[in-house]
Amino acid sequence: MSQAFQSICILRLSAIGDVCHAVAAVQAIQRAHPKASITWVIGKIEAMMLKDLPGVELVVFDKKLGKQAYSQLKQTFKGRQFDVLLHMQVAFRANMAARCIPAKQKIGFDKGRSKELHSLFINKRIAPQSEPHVLEGFAEFARTIGVEFTTPTWEMPVTQQDRDVASKLLEGLDRILVIAPAASKAERNWLPERYAALADYAHKKGFSVVLSGGPTELERTLGAQIQAKSHAPIVDLIGKTSLKQLLCVLEQASLVVAPDTGPAHMAVTMGTPVIGLYAHSNPKRTGPYLYQDYVVEVYHANLKQQKGKDVEQLPWGTRVKGHDLMAQIKTETVLAMFDQVVEKESL
C-alpha cells in the first residue's frame, strides 16, 4: 500500500505509554506521506501530553462522557471520509469508536491479537508478528501503508516554556536520578524502603534524587513513604508538573528508574536511559523500548512457576498474577544495574 494518501486517521485512545509508542509510528508516517492530513482520535489525558503535536489534528474522545462521547465523534466527522483508518487498539471502547469514524479502509490488528470483537470493525489487517513489542505492533501499521520503519524517533510537543519550568524545578541539581515509583496498580510498584535504599545509594554516588508522578493519592502516599525511609535529600515533584513539564523533567534527567508505568516510556521519547522494574508483564513486550537491556525483572521466573511453561510455550503477552511479586526484585540487583548503566552511559 504505497499509494499517496490524502487523509489518514489514527485511533489510539490510551494509555500514556502506548501513546508514546504510537507517536514514533505516526511521525514515521508523516515523513513518508508529507502531503497527507493526519487526525488522531485520542483519550483526554493523553491529549494533554500531545497537544500541538506537529502536523496532527487531535480529536479528543472523553470516555467519561459515556454514550455522548460516541455521538460527539460522529458529529466531528460528519461529512468527512478518511482514505484510511489505522485502528491501533483492540479494547471494546476503541472498537465502538471505530464505528464512528468514516474511512475507505479500516486497518486493524492480525487475528492473533484481535479481541473484544475487533475483527468486526476493520476490513484489512496488519501482518502477524513474532513476539513483538507494543511499539513494533504500531510500526507494522506504518509499514502496511508503505512506510519504512526501522529505529523509532520522537519529536515530542514541548515548548521552551515547558523546559524553563522543568529547569526551575530542577535548579541547582546535577546528575539527576528521577524515580517515577508508581504504576497504575499498586501491585506493580516496588517497595518504598527499596526505592529509599536506591535513593540513598544514588546520593552517595553523587546523584541528585527526584521523585515524579501524578497527583493521585496512591502516588502521593508512595512518595511520602519513600521520603520517610530515605536519608538522602529528595526533591518531590509528585503532582507538581503537567505531563509536558514532566516530559522536560525526564529529558533533563541523567537516568530514570520506574516500574511498568507511563513515565518510563515518556523518558524513552526524550532520550533518557531507563531502568525498568518488571514482574507482572513481559518487558520484551511492554518494557522501555530502547533500554530493554536495563530491565530488572522477575516475570519469567513467575511465569514458569505459575503456568509451568516457558514464555515461548504460552500466548505472547501472558501476564502473571500476585500482589507481592515486585518484592522479589532485590535491592542489590537494582543497585548493580544502576552501577552498570552509569558506567555504560558514562553518567
From TrEMBL:
Molecular function (Gene Ontology), one example: ADP-heptose-lipopolysaccharide heptosyltransferase activity
Name under which the protein is recorded: Glycosyltransferase family 9 protein
InterPro entries with a match to the protein in the record: Glyco_trans_9, LPS_LOS_Heptosyltrfase
Cellular component terms (Gene Ontology): cytosol
Superkingdom per UniProt: Bacteria
One Pfam family this sequence matches: Glyco_transf_9
Keyword Ligase: no
Species of origin: Pseudoalteromonas xiamenensis
Similarity section: Belongs to the glycosyltransferase 9 family.
Keywords: Glycosyltransferase, Transferase
Biological processes per GO annotation: lipopolysaccharide core region biosynthetic process
